[in-house]
Amino acid sequence: RILKINMKKLLLAVILLTASTASADFNKTSWEFISEILPAKGQASGYVSFDIPSEAFQNLDSNLSDLRIVSNEVEVPFVLETEREKDLLSDVSAKVFNISSVQGQSTSFIMDIGKTWVSHNRITIETSSENFKRDVKIEGSDDQKTWGTLNQNGQIFDYTRREGSYINSKWMGVEYPQATFRYLRVTIFDRGEPALKISRATIQNRLQSPAKEVSYSPTIESNENPGEKTTDLILDIGTSGTPHSRGELTPPINAQEESNSFSRAIVVSESTDKKSWNVLGNGYIFSISTPEFTGKNLNFSYPESRKRYLKISVLNRDDQPIKFSGMNLYGVVRKVLFKFESGKNYFVYIGNPKARMGEYDISAVSQYLSAENVGNVTVGKPIKNPNFVPTLPPLSERSPYLLPSFLVLVVIILALVLVKLFIKKSNDKR
After folding, report:
1. pTM given for the model
2. Contact at 8 Å (CB) between 310 and 250?
3. Is 320 helix (H, G, I), strand (E, B) or coil?
4. Distance of CA 271 to CAs 50, 60, 234, 239, 249, Å?
5. How many other C-beta atoms lie within 10 A of the C-beta of residue 288?
6. Cα gap 138→174, rounded to integer Å
7. What one-character-per-residue DSSP string does 131-166 give?
8. End-to-end CA distance of the chain
9. With 0-12 CB in 10 A as exposed, 13-18 as middle and 19+ as buried, what is 426?
10. 87, 206 Cβ separation under 8 angstroms
11. Considering only CA atoms, which of 79, 333, 301, 86 is closest in space to residue 212?
């Protein structure tokens, strides 16, 4: 009986020592940072939204689960939204004919939509040719007699590297102002280069609404890597958690001069510590100014990253390194939508690693709201929550040797109890 009672007490003590703290409902003492929501003067009640400040991401979990909107210490339902580019691209049926080339000068063809008053504003060219840059001119006509210029400065390019790691980056679309011409005449200027092998061309109507972006200006550390023949640009955004997915290099001084023209592939990688790097993708940059061709592309995109460090490896091959003067990174804006009531004060709480993602009915309602019916509010910069109380880790973590010591004590006590029982039984037999 004594043994059973002791065992129950010991088991209960072990459970109390090893149990982890359970998560609780919203409590303002559990959130490290707070921001005030600032409505416009005379803001009417209804659905409103705000952009999450870039300063907040360093204190938020990567999936933004530790964000809450609160009014009068009561949680307010909300939904997180990511700004997306709205890009509706529809093909316009057209026939391609009269593909012809003047050796070393240009390649041209005509496209017939078949009728007028069909709206279009873009053409996409398909070719099996690789590694080229070309100027393109687009003209429109209704009778093939009188032609009007739609875009005189279009550009297409392709960069393909098959040795080593395969790299392919290209841009084959040429846009022009909205038009309804029945015929398009496309002229690709070869200027001494071999004619492109045109396999197909498509006329399209593009309705585009670009995503709202926020820009960042990271610090740049430039390192030459002679072994790999690369210039490694190490970008430091300053904190982890900030979403980014696009970059734009600032060209070096005098890059417009012919002697400073360049044409190179790049590899984009991410890291949390500048030691271990994960490749995100590749791209192609160039800046060329010659009598035959003038153009540049210093933009590159990659899958969205939240890492603090980004590495842009410029593949120099046997050329001299390029010294870029700067770079900007861009990320799409994250928005928060909730129902606002005039006369109430609202606050954003962030920074609680134990928080789970909030689940509210508004996530299903928001898809039926049009932008015209959603107001805008702003948010102040995050500040330390004066009510925040740091949560102490479990006793077993604060005193890592306590549990092993306790278990040793338990074993000793059990051994003494068993010895005592053994001696008692031995005496009873006598």
Report:
1. 0.72
2. no
3. coil
4. 30, 18, 10, 12, 20
5. 19
6. 8
7. SEEEEEEEEEESSSSS-EEEEEEEEEEEEEE-SSS-
8. 22
9. exposed
10. yes
11. 333
Question: Which residues does residue 332 pair with via DSSP β-bridges, in sequence order?
Answer: 213
With a CB cutoff of 8 Å and minimum separation 6, the contacts of 294 are 135, 288
As given in the structure block, the two tokens for residue 386 are 């004066």
- In this structure, the number of other CB atoms found within 10 A of the CB of residue 355 comes to 18
State residue 58 phi and psi, 5-degree precision: -70, -20
Tell me the residue type at 399. S
Per-residue pLDDT of the chain (430 residues; tens, 9 = 90+): 434 444 444 443 433 333 333 333 578 899 999 999 999 988 999 999 999 988 888 888 878 899 999 999 999 999 998 877 777 889 999 999 999 999 999 999 999 999 988 999 999 999 999 999 999 999 999 999 999 999 999 999 999 998 888 889 999 999 999 999 999 999 999 999 999 999 999 999 998 777 788 899 999 999 999 999 999 999 999 888 889 999 999 877 554 444 578 999 999 999 999 999 999 999 999 998 888 888 889 999 999 999 999 999 999 999 999 888 889 999 999 999 999 999 999 999 999 988 988 899 998 988 888 878 899 999 999 999 999 998 755 555 556 666 777 788 888 888 888 878 877 777 776 6
Q: In 190-253, which ranges are E strands?
A: 198-209, 213-216, 219-225, 230-236, 244-250
- Are 120 and 202 in contact by the 8 Å Cβ rule? The answer is no
Find all residues with CB under 8 Å of 202, minimum gap 6, and list them: 91, 92, 94, 123, 124, 126
Q: Rounded to whole angstroms, what are the CA distances from 311 to 271, 277, 303, 308?
A: 8, 8, 14, 10
Distance of CA 299 to the CA centre of its chain: 15
Token pair 């949390």 is found at: 272
Q: At 237, phi and psi to the nearest 5? A: -75, -20
Distance from C-alpha of 159 to C-alpha of 157, rounded to nearest angstrom: 7
